[in-house]
Design goal:
357 residues, 10 helices, Spore Coat Polysaccharide Biosynthesis Protein SpsA, Chain A, single chain, 2 domains, elongated, alpha/beta, 8 strands
Length: 357
């Protein structure tokens, strides 16, 4: 790569062989129109359809293409993180390769960044080509996350966004294993601008975000940025306790008064017992989800492992941060080490207490 790029584009790829060449042609044209040096960082997240071979061909033809191949499928949010850690530009734009997010919008994102914004989100004003179920489930997803999360998210924004270098470095300083990048970006609190666009139909292939994955992403967003599920479990327990006291008091009074309760009383008690038991299992499930996340965090495993990489310059510190021993050629082709956390370049640790001497 001849010059340090001013703009980086991070593209997570998972089984997108049918559309990669068309995407690269459109995205390269859009980036050339900016008039600045740029790089395109493709992250192959365990593709099984020949995507890696196509990416290697693109890298041979275009010196601005950089490739990361993860050792297996680690998930969309992890692939985005891997790309962010390798990108070197003053701006980093993330978008998927399915051409639903038109690369031509990047010019508008860059213009908003030049206006002073650290985060520029592309907002979907129209979802052409999406089936009604996809539109309804996506709308429900944003309502659910915003209702329960302590950090509000702009509606109809996905992972198509531009980040300044300061925002990227700050985001990468957050070490959590369960990555919900949209919420993490919102948590940063930097100045945000939005650019509206029309989401196009998928150029080829099938969606990689079915309902089950959307529910999992919503769960990560809620539990990473809210304690409402725990508070709700406490409220339920308090309400069930109060109801039990009322019913117990009534049953005791009728027994002391020598009255035989009607049959519906026994049915009501049985239903109450089932309700309380169900609430207990629900509470245990909520606690289990939080404990699972705590367990994942304390294990401190790397977010991902890199199987191969192409196109990075020698000496690029962002290619494999945290690798145990990158060897004499950390920027060349070949297998790379695991991801590790790092602080922003502008971070200054607080001064500690003076030493004894």
């Amino acid at each position: 790569m001849p010059l340090m790029p001013r703009h980086s584009v991070v593209v997570p790829v998972c089984n997108e062989a049918e559309v990669l060449e068309a995407f690269h042609a459109r995205c390269s044209s859009a980036m050339r129109s900016l008039g600045d040096e740029y790089e395109m960082v493709y992250v192959d997240d365990g593709s099984q359809d020949g995507s890696w071979e196509i990416l290697r061909s693109l890298a041979q033809e275009d010196p601005r293409v950089c490739l990361l191949r993860l050792s297996r499928n680690f998930g969309h949010q992890i692939a985005i993180t891997a790309g962010l850690e390798s990108a070197r530009g003053e701006t980093v734009t993330t978008l998927d390769a399915d051409l639903q997010d038109p690369p031509e919008v990047i010019a508008e994102l860059v213009a908003a960044w030049r206006g002073g914004a650290d985060v520029v989100c592309a907002v979907r004003q129209e979802r052409r080509g999406d089936p009604w179920f996809k539109r309804v489930s996506a709308s429900a997803f944003y309502r659910l996350v915003n209702r329960f999360s302590d950090i509000p998210l702009p509606a109809q924004t996905g992972d198509f966004r531009l980040l300044s270098r300061r925002a990227v470095d700050s985001l990468l300083s957050m070490p959590e294993q369960h990555r919900y990048v949209r919420g993490m970006v919102a948590w940063l609190g930097f100045e945000v601008a939005t650019v509206g666009y029309s989401r196009e139909p998928r150029a080829a292939g099938t969606t990689k975000y079915p309902l089950s994955r959307m529910l999992g992403l919503a769960s990560d967003g809620i539990m990473a940025f809210s304690t409402l599920p725990l508070r709700a479990a406490s409220w339920f327990g308090l309400g069930a306790t109060g109801l039990g006291l009322v019913v117990g008091t009534r049953v005791a009074w009728e027994h002391l008064a020598g009255q035989q309760g009607p049959s519906w009383d026994r049915s009501f008690l049985a239903a109450l017992i089932l309700l309380v038991a169900g609430g207990q299992f629900l509470t245990l499930g909520i606690l289990g989800q939080y404990l699972k996340r705590i367990h994942t965090e304390v294990r401190r495993r790397p977010l991902y492992l890199v199987r191969d990489q192409r196109g990075f310059e020698e000496g690029s510190a962002r290619i494999t941060p945290g690798a145990p021993d990158p060897g004499p050629n950390p920027g060349g082709s070949g297998p790379a080490g695991p991801r590790g956390g790092r602080r922003p370049d502008w971070f200054e640790p607080p001064a500690g207490p003076p030493g004894p001497g």
